[in-house]
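Co-fold these.
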Amino acid sequence: MSAIQSAFPGAVLESRVESDRRLWITVDPKRLVEITQFLRDKKDFDHYSGAAGIDRINENLFEVVEILTSHGAHQVVVLMKVKVPRDKPSVRSLTGLYWNANWYEREIWEMFGINFEGHPELYPLLLPDELVGYWPWRKDFKGYPDTTTGERAIEQVGPDGYTEFKIMPHPELIKAGVVPERPKYPTFREREEAEIKSDSEMIMHMGPQHAIVPGPFLLDLLIEGERVKKAFLDVGYIHKGIEKIMENRTYLQGIVYTDRMCYLASITNNEAYCGAVERLLGITPPERAQYIRVILAELSRIQSHLLGTGEFLTLLGAATYSPFQYMIIDREDIVYLMESITGARITHTFVRFGGVRNDLPDGFADKARPILKRMRERTEEYMDLLHSDPIYTRRMRGIGVLSPGDARRLGVSGPPLRASDTPYDMRREDPILVYPDLDFKVVTRKAGDAEARVEVRLEEILESIHIIEQCLDRIPDGPIQEKLPKKIKPEPGEAYYRVEDPRGEMGFYVVSDGSEKPYRVKVRGPVYAYMQALPPLLEGAYVADVVAIAGSMDACTSEVDR
Amino acid sequence: MVLKSLKYTLKTALTTTEVTRLYPEVMMELPANERGIHELDATTCIGCGSCARVCPNSCIELVPYRYGNPLKNRKMQFPQIDYGRCTFCGLCVDECPVSCLKMGKRTEIAGWDRKDIVYGPDRIAVKKFSDREVAELEAEAKRQAEEKKKAAAAAAKEKAAKAKGKENKAKAKPGEGGEA
Ligand code: SF4
Ligand code: SF4
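Predicted complex below.
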């Protein structure tokens, strides 16, 4: 902190040191890029974790919060804020410093209408074209079509007798200035077609429904012969607006929505959200609750890795010995264990502010131990099986190599980053709950290829089993819920909390204004970062390997789109 | 190599893991705290509406129902749940102040029409009073109401008398609060 202050006198407008791992600063918008460069080059903040926009309508300001962290050099998270006036919002883009700032800034632009100077491609990312220009995340957004006028669709009968319904604003309304005019930009199709340079190149569409990952997104490949020259991604097919919905629900009701962002990681999403709200409320859950949360988080990691790997193997055509079916059988045991605690199979809504919903059932440890033991044997079998399969190895080894430098630059986290020889794990970097007391190792691989990514996942299952077994041995008796105020109304403030999701770094940024509902919730998901990193990773690959590369990232579109 | 892979296949095929169940004849064994269809104990529900307020999807509505306890639930309003919207999150169960709403092991919901899956109190109630008990309770409620009216009237009279005698008014209050 003092380093920044001495290097940039007068540029830091406000600052707050929350703990030894969180630093909040508000800086002068004009000097944002300089300060970021200083932090990146001199202070090892080499990981751009994300950015969030906040509409402070009462103060007539927009805030943009840039979240900067480091890949293991230290554990400080800097949340750097700039404030810009609401009438002409513009912030300098950080894309020149961090490659992966691109999508985060695009999202803020399309949601809030904050311009980013120097951004190379300010096109909509998640929103459909009709909505751009309405800036739906602003607080004065009335809904589209405008719910105050009740206008829905415009009916038009064409010359051929077909009736078409359009939900576009009237041209007169645009002219009169009631509806903002849509910004001009080339569409996705125009952008990709502009890249076709010669007759030997063509565009191949993969998606929006496809086998690479569950969930729709469009992957267009510009191919020349057998090689991918450039890849284009279009996401947002299932954009649900969860961040906005959560602003209109109470804190407690928000938990339900975090489940639905990614059903394989619902416990960790619960955990991240509740953790952030706990910071706002200033409470810590009792020890027993912390252990229960860890047990569930690790069980959820196991089942997610099993399903992710199994599904991916079917894509590769590993049908002879159908590992997918084996993994589903094994996953069933784990899901059953989770169900016996929470009462639900995938959408758990289990973690509560300052505790958990209910206690472990009687005899849970006795039931869990044999299942975990079997799980360990099975995982070792899988590792052996995959290792010794020549077809699998030929398709995976050396494919889609992500060098450690690139992996950090592209901002990926979780197993793909660890497979690229970077021991970066939130359970170590930003330890929460009882993780500091537990013994586990961060699994890494040197190779950085598709095979390494799957290996990391499988080995992490073993680590998770080890963690759960320790928890079962140590879990103390006691209460499972901290005393809460009758109405959950945190003091005005903000908190950022991150956990290690099965897929990587999952962070929740929650802003409170002292009312019953959160003022703003921003989700920083791991798959968003993977998806963004996909086009550069696919460049130069063979078409046949695209599935192996994209599938080995274990993505989940639902969380990207939120 | 490939043979090794096949060895695993055989091994799995020959072990006795249960893989397919003959649903719907054989149901899966559900754990004790399964979150399935709600179970309402109509004899204790006080009709407070907390469950309706906390539901994130507004699927609970309070509707009139006969077989409850008129002593505790004055207006005889009980939750009705729209399973077309319910996400089985369990927040309503956690919120209930008298713990009369639970979630059970029943999980099958089907209907021809959207309104078929809106379960009223008659379909979710697992404990309710019989006609006779309700009649008795209603009589009791009436009696209590009358008593209360009388008490209130008496209190008012007393109050008026005391006011006349320039007594301290606060003394009249305990009579009013009884039988609530
Ligand atoms: S379980 Fe959740 S969604 Fe269903 S009625 Fe209760 S609160 Fe509403
Ligand atoms: S079920 Fe419980 S929360 Fe709902 S109205 Fe009855 S007493 Fe109130």
